[in-house]
Amino acid sequence: MRPLQLTICAFGPYARTQVIDFERFGTGGLYLITGDTGAGKTTIFDALVYALYGSVSGDVREVNMLRSRYADPKEQTYAELVFQVRDQTYKVYRSPEYERPKERGTGFTKQKAVCELAFFDGRAPLTKTAEVNEQIRQIIGLSRDQFKQVCLISQNDFLKVLLAKTDERTKILRSLFKTEAFKKLQERLNAQANEKKSALAAMERSLADKIGQLETFTADEVFELEDLKHFLQICHERIGQQKAGLEKKQAAYNEDLVRLGALGEQQKKRKAQQEAACKLEEAKKKIAGLEKEKGRLDEQKELYRKWIGENSRLLEMARQSRQYEEAKKQAAHYFAGMNDVKKSLDELAGNMEKRSKALEKMRADLENEAELTARREQLLHEIETVRQLERLRKQLETARKNAVRQQEEYGRLRKAFVELEHTFRQSRLSYLDDQAGVLAQLLEEGKPCPVCGSCTHPAPAAVSGHVVSKDDVDRLERQVEQEREVLQAQANKAALALEEQDRLRREVKERSENGQDGKVLEAELDSIRKRLERFSRLSGQIRKEEALAAKDVADKERVRNDLQQVSMLYAQWKAKAEQLDKSAEDLDVLEKRIAENQQRIAQHENDAALNARELARYNALKAQCEGMLGDETIRDDGLQEQIDRLTAHLDKKKEEIGCDKLALSKEEYVYAHDRKLLEQIEAEQKETEEFRTRLSELNNLAETLNGKLSGHAKIVLESYVQAAYFDEVIDQANVRFMQMSQGHYELIRLQSGNKVSQTGLDLGVVDHYNGSVRSVRSLSGGESFEASLSLALGLADTVSAMHGGISCDTMFIDEGFGTLDEETLSHAIDMLAQLAAHKSIGIISHVSSLKERIDAQIVVRRKPGEGALAKVIV
Hints:
The chain contains 17 helices and 16 strands. It has 874 residues and is an alpha/beta fold. Helix 4 (155-163) runs antiparallel to helix 5 (166-177), helix 5 packs across helix 14 and helix 7 runs antiparallel to helix 13. The longest helix has 75 residues, at 225-299. It starts with a strand and ends with a strand.
C-alpha cells in the first residue's frame, strides 16, 4: 500500500483544509515529518489510519475527539486518502460523527458520520461503513493493528522491549503479538480441570451414598459389584420359594372355603322348607274367603246388565237435549250477525260517495305538472353553466399563485447561481495564482525562468495562505454547470405557469359575458322543486284513494254475499230448534242419573277384578309351597356345629396367609429397591470411570499449557507462543543489527537451564569481537537504539511474512533519534536509506540535525489560535 495524497479538514490541530501530496516524494526514499513538539506530526499518521480503518492509530485518542477546536463551525471534519495497491488506485473518504453549533438559533446539532470508498475502474462506490471496512481489509490484507505493526515503527516501545525484565517483556509482547487469547485459554482449561475434579468428587460421593442405601445386606459385607449381583440373585430365588409355599396354603384355604359354602346352602334350604309350611296354611284360609266373595259377585251380574241398558237410553236422551240448546244459540248468533252486516253495507255506501268527490278534485290539480317539469330541466342546465364558471375562477386563482411561486423560486435560484459562479471564478483565479507561486518556489537565481526565460527574479509570486487545489476548482465548475441546468429548468416551469394563467383568464372572460345571475336561477328552481314535490305527494294520494275505492266496491259485494249467507243459516237453525223443542227433557236430571249408574258399574267391575287377582295369587303361593314340601326333607344332624368348626379353621388359615403375604411383599420391595439401586450404581460406576479418564486427559493438557506438568519444561503456552514469534523477530532484527553494528553484535534469546523456571523470553547479546554473551542492558545508548530499531523493523517484516508476504510501500518511524551521537545517527540513516530504496520511509522527529540530512520534508507549524499548517518541501 502506497499513499498518494492525504486531504484533511478540521481534523485534530488542523483547522483548515490541508493537502499532503505524498507523490512528490516518489516511490522510495526518506522524508522527514518535522515540527515542534505537539504541533501535529503524528496526527498525519492518525489521519491516514482513520481514513483507511475508521479509527485512529493511538490508544489515547477516540474518534469523537477528532474535530478541531479551531475549526469554523461551517467547516466539515473529514479525512480523504488516495492510495495505490498493486497498480490499482482507490480513494477513501471518512467524516466522523460530531456535534456542531446550529446554523439557526442556539444550541448544537449532531453531524452524522459519512463513509465512502471510490474506485477508478468504473465500479460504483461503496457507502456503507461495514462494506467499506471489509473491502479495505481485503485490499490491503491487514487489520488496523497489523497495519500499525508493519507501517508505524514506535522506537520507544521497542526500547522498552529491549531493556524490560522478563515479566514486563511478557506484558509488552502480549500487546505486540496479541497473545491474550492463549493466556485466556490456559486459564479456561485450568478452571475446567478444577471444575471437573469437583464434579468427580461429587460423583464418587453419590456412588458411595447409593451403595449405603442397599437393604439386602450391609456395606461391610460387599466389596465388588459382582458380589452385589450374586447376593441379589440369592434374594430373588428365596422370594420364588416363598411364593410357591404361599400358593399351596392359598389352594388349601380355597378348598375349605368351597366346603363351607356347600354347608351354608344346605342350611338355607332347610330354613326355606320350614317357612313354606307356614305359608301353605295361610294361603288355604285366604282362598276359602275369596271363593265366597266370588259367589256374591256372580249373583250381582243381572243387576249389572240392567244398569248398562238404562245408561244407554239416558245417554241418547242427553244427546238430543244438547242439540236443542246448540240450535237455539246458533240461531241467536246468526240473527245478530245479520244486523251487523246490514249496518256495514250502509257505511260502505257513504264512504264510496265521499271518496269519488275527493278524487275528482285531485285530478284537476295535476294538470300543470308537465309544464313545471320542463322548466326545471332548463334551469338545471343554466345553473351547471354558472358552476363551471366558478370552478374556472378557482383554477385561475391557483394558477396565479403558482406563477408567483415559480417566479420567486427562479429569483432565489438565480441569486444562488450568481454567488456560486462568483465563488468559482475567484477559486479559479486563486488556483492560477498559486500555480505561479509554486513555479516561483522552483526558481533559482542565475537560472532561466521556465516561463519568461529571465535569469533574474526580482519579485517572484508567493503562495497564498489558503491553497486551492485543482480538485476544488473542478468540483466548483461541476456545481456551476449543475446549478445552471437547474436554473434553466426552473425558468421553463415559470414560463409554463404564466401561459396557464393567461389561458384560464381568457376562458373566464368569455364565459362571464354570456352568463346569467346564478342566485335568481337558484331561487326559481327552488320554487319549482317545491311545487313538483307537492304534485308528487298528490299523485301518490290519488293512487292510494283509487285503490281504496276499488277495495270499497269489492267489500260491498262481499258484504251482500255475507248477508245472504247469514240469512239462510239463521232460517235453518231456527227451524231445527223448533223441531227439537217438542222432545227435549231436563239435561241436568239426565246427567245426574247417568253419573250414578256409571259409578255402580265401575265399582262392580273393580271388585270383580280385585277378587280374581287375589284368588290367582294365593293359588300360585299354595302350589309353590306344596312343591317345596314335596322335595326330600333336610335333617339337622349337627349341621351348625360343622359350620362353626370349619369357620374357625378358615379364620386361622386366613391370618397365616396374610402374614406370609406381608412378609413376601416386604421381600419383593427390598429386592426391587436394591435391583434398581444396583442398576444405577453400575451405570454411575461406568460413567465415573469414563469421567475420570477424560479428566486425566484434560488435567494433563491444562498442566502442560500452564507449565506444571511433571518432568517437562515449566513454560506456559503464552510464553511458548511469544517465544516462537520473538525468535522470528530476532532473526529478522539481526540482519539489520549486524549491519548497523558492523558485525559487532547479534541478539539472542536465552534458554532456561532447568525445568523449574517458567522463563524463556530473556534477551541477550552476542559480542562477536570477544565471543561472549552478555545482557542487553550492557549496551550503550547508541547501541541500544540500533538494537531497538532492528527489533522494530524485524517485527514489521515478521508480521508482513505472517500475512502472505504483504508488502507495505510506506513506513513511518516515530521518534527515538534524539539520544544518538553523530556516528550512530549516520549508521541508522544509512541503514534506513538502504531500506528506503523500494519504499517511502517517513521519520517523525523534532531533532534539528535530521533536517540537514534529509531534504524531503513535511514541515508542521502551529499558529496560536489558528491551529496547525503542514507544508511539503522536496
